[in-house]
Amino acid sequence: MRNWDQNDVTYKVKKTVYYYWTPSNLNYWYNYGFIAFFFLISQIITGILMAMHYLAFSEIAFSLVLDICFENHYIWWLKLCHCNGASFFFFFVYIHMCKNIYYGSYMYPRQSLWFTGCILWLLMIMTAFLGYILPWGQMSVWGAVVITNIIGSIPFIGTDILYLLWGGWSLGSTTLKRFYAFHFFLSFVLVGVSYIHVVLLHEFGSNNPLGITAYFDGSPFVPYYIVKDIFYLFIIIYNFCLYCFFSPDFLNHVENFVMSNTFITPAHIVPEWYFLPIYAILRSIPNKGLGIFFSFFFVVSVFLLPFIGKKSLVRSATFRPIFAVVLWFLFFVCLLLGWVGGLPVYSPFAEIGMVVTFLYFFILFIVIPIIIYIENIIFTAYLIRKNQK
Length: 389
What we know:
Elements: H1 9-17, E1 21-23, H2 32-51, H3 61-71, H4 76-102, H5 111-133, H6 138-152, H7 158-166, H8 173-204, E2 218-220, H9 221-246, H10 276-284, H11 288-303, H12 305-308, H13 321-341, H14 349-388
Helix pairs in contact: 2-4, 2-8, 3-4, 4-5, 4-9, 5-6, 5-8, 6-7, 10-11, 10-13, 10-14, 13-14
């Protein structure tokens, strides 16, 4: 039997994949990290292939995308897979995040693992936004106008940064080239941070529904869980192909099939669905400065979860019924934010957006800490009573 050198690349690969020790009771909710990584790689591959047929000039960008979709008989499927792959990527990442929150995977000692995951999510938002601008359709351009003008609202230096980002006094070919370059660059940054995320996962090990480590009851990743991941991956790919080839434009907005015209403002500006919760908060607060602040704070709040829940004595919501109910309600509130973000800004949707925005921050920063405090009292009293017996 060969004695592997610890500096050997083959040994490191085998240690990372083959010898990785996982809990024995992982369910199918734990497959979504692997599924999300698959879609990240597919996005990189399809993006590189599409880059061979794209030019970042505002005068022809829209026509080139139409050419890819309708005129080129060999690469039309790349556009379908790349654009819809972004939606699938976000969908599975959101499920992966919700699973980690429910089972307490953000708690000690996995805080750094959670932080890298949140950084990945933030990079995904930036990369997807830049990619959404590249078709240079009506909704893409006006979405860029709305979002980039947020930067212009920064006191003192905002206007200078905005014009530097635009490369002029308004959006044009220079802006498109810069967005295209950053979109391409951030895609590979995503891969690098994903590698760090996986390294930290193997450093601290996978959490499980019971909230215990794999050292007490574990199984090797290969062959037990790799088979489970691949089986589930084939199911996802099958459904992804059904979606791409039979309803490829279901999530696209009709305005984005019209060439951009900066002299005509769309009646209702709607970003991609995975931006809608942030967009809902931005427009639900009447004051522009406060809207920007709370939109930014919505993203930051995800990073703060390890600090909010660090005093909890029990990790998994499986054994915290009160917390589980509140957590499911919080997830429902996030869905409501996404729903409101896609609706016009008039009564009663504007008022609903204000209420749902308030509920999100109230539950996360007021209700959940109170529940953790009450649960700790109950669990401590139970342990004392058990020890007395």
